[in-house]
Write the structure tokens for this entry.
Amino acid sequence: MAMLLVVVGTAGSIVGARQVAQEDSNNSHQVFVTSANGIASTLKLAVQHEQDLTISAGAFLAANPEATDAQFMQWTRSVRAFARYPELQTISELVMVPASQLGAYAARQVADPSGTLAANGTFEVSPPGNRPYYCLSPASQARSVKQDLPDGIDFCATVLRSELLGSRDSGKNEYLPYKSGKTEELAVGAAIYRGGVVPSTVAARRAAFIGWTGTAILPGVILDTALKGHPDTAVAFHYGAGRSKVTFTAGTMPRGAQSTTINLRNGWYVQVFGAVVGEGLLTNRSALVLLIGSIALVLLLALLIYVLGTSRSRALELVDERTNELEHQAFHDALTGLPNRALILDRIDHMMARARREQTTVAALFLDLDNFKDINDTLGHRAGDQLLTEVGKRLVGVLRGGDTVGRLGGDEFVVLTEGSSRSDVGQGVAQRVLAALDPPIEISASDVPLTVTASIGIASGDRATPEELLRDADIALYRAKAAGKHRAEVFTPSMLVSVDDHRSLDVDLHAALGADQFFLLYQPTIDLATGALTGVEALLRWRHPTRGVVQPLDFIPALESSGLIVPVGQWVLEEACRQGAHWHAQGHRLVVSVNVAAKQLQRDRIVDDVHGALTASGFDPALLVLELTESALMQDVAMTVDRLRMLKALGVRIAIDDFGTGFSSLAYLQQFPIDILKIDRSFVASVAETSTSAAIIRTFVQLGKALALEVIAEGIENDDQRMRLAAEKVDTGQGFLFGRPLDVEAVHRFLQHSRTVSTA
Ligand code: C2E
Ligand code: MG
Ligand code: MG
């Protein structure tokens, strides 16, 4: 647009300026012609005036051939010659005096008091000498005295001679320019004949000839008058008739002037020089000004259009950028830059559609950091943010190209992956993800590297909506949390049943402790070598007013995240010790194991709680075992070791619960003052089927023995498992095979039928 405007505008400006130049030129030519005509007519008038004066002077002379200077002066005054003719310098009567009449003429002149004689008062011809005739001036008037000519000058003895005689014979005026000092003057001679008319032949003219009227004028004055009001104009005034050829110039000749010549008749021509505006663009000022002005305007407009145009496109660009940014913001998490829930759902949708086409399986991993809330609470949000960012990076680092990592918010991440087989898709990724989080994370907001663990719920396969897949992964995550955290659980439809409404229970939990809704069940532990009862594990239950008995997996995670686990855990300790002391009082030295949550272990208060429970109940500390999961131990190792020492100082023993599912880092074990190793039931479940599980269990037992630990196997459900574990020299067993978690009465009955092994 701007370019077009420049091209069209410039062309238009040139055409316009041309037209103006043309018009200007025409106008100025017109003006010039008019002014030249004006000058010419002024000059013509001046010439006519001059002739009028000559004719009237001639008439005076014809009537007074012997007029004296005084008489002539009177005449010039009467006709106001000098006033009316500003160019007039001198006016004279000239007569032709034959040598014979010179004496009489001289006597008349001497007698004329107003004459101008020689210095000595005599009349002498000048130049002196005897000539057949003399052309003398009997009367003469000058504008100034200085110009008054001496009476005796013989004009026919000067350069004027031929002009004078010529005009006598031709009857025409004779003109002769001459210099008087510095000024150009024009001498005009007009012959006077008797009768006032010019005879037709030369002879007749000579016969009727009386004399001349001679005038000296300043042509400059006439010309200046004519040039008045015509600046920048020069004029050349020519006379060219007969032998007279004169030219006068006046005015200032402008550069590159044009000229026009006008015939004034009677031999006079006037040539006027004036500046005429040319047709050329560059020579015409106003056209040039117009051209430059309009081009400048065009350029300004073009610039305006360009600026508006570019700022519009810049604005559009900005809008584009902004739109992209907003789009990115709409689909990405601000902190980590990872896809957010909306984008994750969209990706799941695409992946599921592709999976249907290509017979593959999509898996969603729902990942939640186990101890994030504590980090946020103790180190602050900045540390929390840095940690989340780093976790995001690690997750991205372990994934394949086609996988997606996103953040749902808080410490919740989602990983999407695809695989060919339905069963294990996602599990390999989950293990890689857990391993990736193993190395402590260094962040600037914390002096010590932070250890984070995560729980992962895996859901795979097709669903009606992407949300369903995420929900199922979330349920599996809940299970992973409940099962001790720092692990991955695969979703199974059976999870839906119990979990569907677990979240609504959270609200009711707050009132549960005050309302006495918690109670404990006790699951026996058996000496695998002898089959004797060694003790019980206290397991928490919640009698919900409307839902009935709720299992710990469905409310302990909520207790932990709300922090309620601390008072509830204290209650469990007190209740278990009270019951243990009671059994003891009845003569049963039963070991009582109490599960202690990570949250509890993170506070110094745990030492007081345990101490309080023991003193309040009088329970023998040697019979109390505190079960801690690996992940609970691994949080803030140094502090944990300190607290474990203090607890042990009370005389209680420490067990690692669910061993093998967490870090499985045997090296760590040595740091902790542990007494018992409880092998997770997942190994027990498969001990009869896979040789790997058997090998692992053997390793655990050997390790336990090396560290002088008691080894307990959880979840023994059948004899096959019992025998294999016994063969692997596992000390103690726990599981449905021996007994489910029992209420106090059931324990009592159990005690009646079994032998108690003294553990003292
Ligand atoms: P846990 O400490 O590993 O307790 C053993 C769990 O295994 C119990 O589940 C028990 O019922 C179950 N179990 C025992 N034998 C078998 C078996 O042969 N087969 C199968 N499939 N399961 C068996 P429960 O009572 O549902 O407790 C689940 C978890 O809840 C416990 O795992 C423990 O981590 C936690 N928990 C229970 N009570 C407390 C508590 O008072 N405080 C804390 N912090 N956690 C508790
Ligand atoms: Mg336990
Ligand atoms: Mg366990």
Notes: Residues 503 and 558 are 8 Å apart (CA to CA). Residues 657-658, 678, 714 surround magnesium ion (ligand 3) (CB under 6 Å). The chain has 26 helices and 23 strands.
